[in-house]
Amino acid sequence: MSIDIEDIKALRERTGCGIMDCKRALMQSGGDAEKAVEILRRQGLARAREIQRRETGDGAVSCYVHFGDKLGVMVEVACETDFVARNEVFRQLAEEAAMQVAALAPQYISPEEIPEEEKKTQLDAYRQEAVAEGKPENVVERIAEGRLQKRNKEICLLEQPSIRDEKIPFKEVVAGTAARLGENVRIVRFVRFRVGEASQIAHAS
Question: Quick one: 98 and 170 in the same domain?
Fold first, then answer.
């Protein structure tokens, strides 16, 4: 089938994927843009999983200061080589990560960084909350687990909805960038400063 070049450009703008990848995805989806986005997401995650165990010995630090100079963020993003660290696509991800931290104020990079004691305390609180609401005993645990997962999506950078597209978590933005660049890419640490507040610092295990 014939794919309109404007549709390819629109998909490329939306996903950041290459022209040929966008064209193939649109052909596979029969021209359906939403299905094409899903195809590209699945492909990107699959490629990222293949390379995510590689060592990351290079990277970049990105800084963002919000208008008015009352809020600032520094984020370290790692990759494998200096060549990729200087790549515009990688730099854009680092900048986007800094803006993500500024906008949504995560406390951790991923759920794995949350201390076990904090998880246990929060889960107990959600159990008690469910019981107090009169929920049946046989569903209290499931409700508590669900609320804990929801909290993780609010406080963990990689689980938060992307500020670029709230339909996808930020971890998929990172995975998509890794797939495009062919290197392991990961968020190493961040610090968020706001005048009058304690700084928020997080780092990967």
Answer: yes
DSSP type of residue 133: T
Nearest alpha carbon to residue 25 among 168, 176, 164: 176
Mean pLDDT, the chain, rounded, equals 88
Q: How many residues does the chain have?
A: 205
The residues, ordered by sequence, that sit 6+ positions from 3 with a Cβ below 8 Å of its Cβ are 23, 26, 27, 31
Alpha carbons 174 and 97: distance in angstroms, whole number: 9
Domain that holds residue 20: 5-51
- Digit-coded pLDDT (tens) for 130-170: 999 999 989 999 999 999 999 999 999 999 999 988 888 99
pLDDT of residue 46: 55
Residue 145 shares a structural domain with residue 176: no
- Please count the CA atoms within 13 angstroms of the CA of 144 that sit on its side-chain side: 21
Whether 98 and 182 share a structural domain: yes
State the total domains in the chain.
Answer: 3
